[in-house]
Q: What sequence folds into this?
């Protein structure tokens, strides 16, 4: 198979969706660190062991290796700003962040989906990363909907259809359970989204852009020029992914950066325009059978559902 | 912190959402194995290393340790049946499954989101599991929507709102980008689902049942009695989680199992009924402002969107 291209490998790895964690520790000299990581996973139930990997080039590595403990903060879906905060270099990443101290100087962030306080159990060689194995000495389980990371973009969890194995069951014979489900708005909404995506995503992928490249290009199409910092507020992607997507779009000749301001080239506008057309043609096709009154009612209810949420981040 | 309760620890770990993989290998004697695992993660880009952990009690462990290679098949959202197939004991898990041979006798399943062919690089001690580190020698990147595993149940990925950091931006000043988004049905649908869930999930959690327990109880409420095998077809959960949820519901006195047939007790019916009431009261509350004509139009469009999908599993 020869050499593995790290960029293509990293992109392939992005297909494995994961939660997002912030790892924290304080070393023996009182240096406190926090880094966003998605390499977390469970290892053993008895003893309770978990692991994650830190980049050997990370400025926080030494603190983690010199600390007796670290904490795993599993982020909830409304904590994108926390994820971004700990994913980037900053003078003091804990400035303005509320937290309490966990075991051995680790830091517990509030409102996470779960957290684990760990004793540093072992460090193992992991190529350009160091694998840290932690022995769990305490944990909290808050059950909040989690933040997800998939193909370079932040995402959320959508419940899977229950009728996953027998796809036609609801068409053939409606059981009492099916009838209840079909009267349930939550079920109808989630399944409608899933069905819409199943038809739409393959069309979007035919553009040849990755999900994160497409997302960036679509947002830039509506702007005359933006800095990366402004992009961070507009697209649900970490700065690292924005940087990678920017480089990829530059290589394709779709994007230019003049004095820190990103804008699409002519070719880039054409590509993003094609994406916008794919979305709008698909929508036209799907909704052509409805009257404008029906479409107005449908959109009104969706918009009002969105506006019921006092804060989309909570 | 004293002793860690393995059951509570496992449940807390379930808050970290992950993709689902099937790991495969063939040992030097030609024994072929495949197991479902969600402990997969990336380690290093250069060299290209990944890892996962296998239970020391697994019957497939020896084959993985005696094989030169293994493959990681990252499952797509429509591959629940593949996940279930490799998660349970079976005479021959590969019977009736189409596959092609990967590097060193590993097995590549078709239609996955991604796959990685790995040389077994190292095995590390991981308590009651063994950590397998693989050196990636080949991979494929298909970009399909992935199957997720969260709180014991199968799930799918929902795109995260772009306006994640500035929640009120779309209310205060509508940029041209906002206007486009608010005319985009995919955006409206995904955001409506997210807003609905943000309001509804905390109410559901107040029942004291975990997501998987609630899911099982709700399905059993519509049945007079079901075997675990029948449950596997109805709920989007692996058999292992069904077993755990069944035990938990039994302990609470909510469920009984007579000659392999599961049914809710009186108390269980009351608890599941309460869950059903929570769902239906929430729905009534949210939709009370609409006329029955508006609700009819809204439901009709959602149902027809669902029915456009020729096969909910694809």
A:
């Amino acid at each position: 198979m020869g050499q593995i291209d790290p960029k293509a490998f990293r992109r392939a790895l992005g297909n494995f969706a994961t939660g997002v964690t912030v790892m924290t520790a304080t070393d023996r000299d009182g240096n406190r660190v926090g880094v966003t990581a998605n390499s977390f996973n469970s290892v053993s139930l008895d003893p309770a062991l978990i692991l994650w990997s830190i980049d050997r080039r990370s400025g926080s590595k030494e603190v983690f290796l010199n600390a007796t403990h670290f904490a795993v903060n599993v982020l909830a879906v409304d904590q994108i700003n926390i994820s971004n905060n700990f994913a980037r270099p900053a003078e003091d990443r804990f400035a303005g962040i509320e937290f309490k101290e966990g075991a051995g100087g680790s830091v517990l962030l509030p409102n996470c989906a779960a957290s684990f306080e760990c004793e540093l159990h072992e460090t193992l060689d992991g190529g350009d990363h160091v694998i840290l194995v932690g022995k769990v000495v305490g944990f909290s389980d808050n059950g909040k909907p989690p933040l997800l990371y998939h193909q370079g973009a932040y995402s959320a969890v959508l419940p899977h259809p229950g009728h996953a194995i027998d796809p036609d069951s609801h068409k053939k014979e409606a059981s009492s359970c099916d009838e209840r489900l079909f009267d349930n708005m939550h079920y109808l909404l989630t399944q409608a989204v899933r069905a819409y995506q199943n038809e739409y995503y393959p069309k979007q992928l035919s553009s040849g852009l990755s999900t994160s490249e497409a997302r960036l290009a679509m947002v830039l199409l509506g702007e005359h020029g933006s800095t990366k910092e402004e992009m961070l507020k507009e697209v649900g992607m970490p700065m690292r992914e924005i940087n990678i997507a920017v480089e990829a779009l530059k290589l394709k000749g779709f994007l230019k950066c003049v004095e820190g301001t990103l804008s699409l080239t002519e070719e880039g506008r054409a590509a993003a325009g094609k994406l916008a057309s794919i979305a709008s043609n698909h929508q036209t096709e799907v909704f052509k059978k409805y009257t404008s009154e029906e479409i107005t009612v449908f959109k009104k209810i969706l918009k009002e559902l969105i506006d019921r949420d006092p804060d989309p981040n909570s």
Remarks:
- Chain B has two domains: 6-149, 207-307.
- Residues 170 and 178 of chain B are 6 Å apart (CA to CA).
- Residues 162-175 of chain B have pLDDT under 50 and may be disordered.
- The radius of gyration of chain B is 23 Å.
